[in-house]
Design a protein that fits this description.
globular, two-stranded parallel sheet, binds zinc ion, 12 strands, alpha/beta
């Protein structure tokens, strides 16, 4: 399915680009601003099996996007400034917020120098368990297991099942199957347990990814000292919140904020829901985030920001810079909001 979604999205992007429709549709779809989502910014890696590649863009593409934005008529603003504009209904100029999820070291290495050069404010949503080196980046463990194996054994509903994954095509297919099967597990605990077993069986160290990829508190502290940077919360364990109890959701949102405050001396006011689609964060999570006093919270539901979002600041959509769409000409379409408007069926609000 993600393959099909991508194909449709690519066709739509090309159509929008070549027809110039993104300019014509701007008043309809562009809203008052856009929040961009990024994960990794790093040089391309060799290898054809990279199922998580949509989560990374190259420093070159990232540089193009930032330069293009700097030269355009939009204001690049911090989350606090976005919040001010929304609450005071100051929509005289379009804004873009740049945000990074998870707290990867490549944000510091490859994105920060560009953002610093062009003086672009940005936010970093830190999962404290990753910085503490106790997180489980299960989607990467799944990729690593499939990458190194020719066959995978899994216990599904009390039965041992085996899946072949010799070729790149088989690996891609199996990753998609297992990824979405895991996402459908009832509890986060079950999802994690399956991946832990799988990783152990195939000698993949699930705990090693944090140390390899994520910033230490020392590095986060360095970044946080720059006035361009806003540190936001992204939970402790990076769970799919919708699979947790009310009390667990509350503790994830509260404890991550407390840990960041203890480390940096500043209490985060902004939140990003892990995974962040409508099966991961919805009405209950938005309500709890509001009750805990967060000023804004972002999802990964695609879309631009409209004036109506002023009443839904804990359920904000974002536009992802997706590694599968790195042609420079796409950058303009993305920022116009037209592509995600199309994706969204032109629904302005998607906050339930
Ligand atoms: Zn995340």
């Amino acid at each position: 399915m993600p393959g099909l979604r991508n194909a449709i999205f690519r066709t739509a992007m090309e159509a929008l680009y070549f027809s110039g429709a993104h300019v014509l549709m701007r008043p309809l779809t562009g809203g008052v601003g856009t929040i961009l989502t990024l994960h990794h910014v790093r040089p391309p890696r060799p290898g054809r099996f990279q199922p998580n590649r949509l989560l990374e863009v190259t420093p070159y593409f990232f540089g193009r996007v930032i330069r293009k934005l700097r030269r355009s008529r939009v204001d690049l603003v911090s989350l606090d400034e976005m919040h001010r504009r929304m609450t005071e209904r100051d929509f005289s100029r379009r804004f873009v917020c740049v945000t990074f999820d998870d707290g990867y070291r490549d944000t510091l290495q490859h994105a920060y120098p560009v953002l610093k050069k062009y003086e672009v404010p940005f936010a970093l949503y830190v999962a404290t368990g990753f910085a503490d080196r106790v997180g489980e980046m299960w989607w990467l463990a799944l990729e690593a297991v499939i990458a190194k194996s020719k066959m995978i054994g899994l216990r599904i509903d009390g039965e041992d099942k085996f899946f072949e994954c010799r070729t790149v095509a088989e690996k891609r297919h199996l990753f998609d199957e297992l990824y979405w099967w895991l996402r459908r597990r009832k509890t986060e605990q079950e999802l994690r347990q399956v991946v832990r077993d799988l990783a152990a069986r195939h000698h993949v160290d699930i705990g090693a990814f944090c140390g390899e990829l994520c910033m230490t508190w020392q590095e986060i502290t360095e970044l946080a000292a720059d006035p361009l940077v806003t540190i936001g919360a992204h939970t402790v364990n990076h769970p799919i919140l919708a699979k947790l109890s009310d009390a667990e959701v509350r503790s994830e949102l509260q404890n991550s904020r407390a840990v960041i405050e203890a480390a940096l001396g500043r209490r985060p006011q902004h939140l990003a829901y892990p995974v962040g689609d409508n099966t991961s964060a919805a009405a209950r999570e938005f309500r709890i985030a509001a009750e805990l006093g967060y000023k804004t919270a972002v999802t990964t539901r695609p879309g631009a920001i409209f004036p109506e979002h002023a009443s839904h600041l804990l359920a904000l959509p974002r536009v992802s810079l997706n590694g599968e769409f790195q042609k420079p000409r796409y950058a303009r379409v993305l920022v116009s909001g037209a592509a995600t408007g199309l994706w969204n069926g032109f629904r302005r609000l998607n906050v339930a």
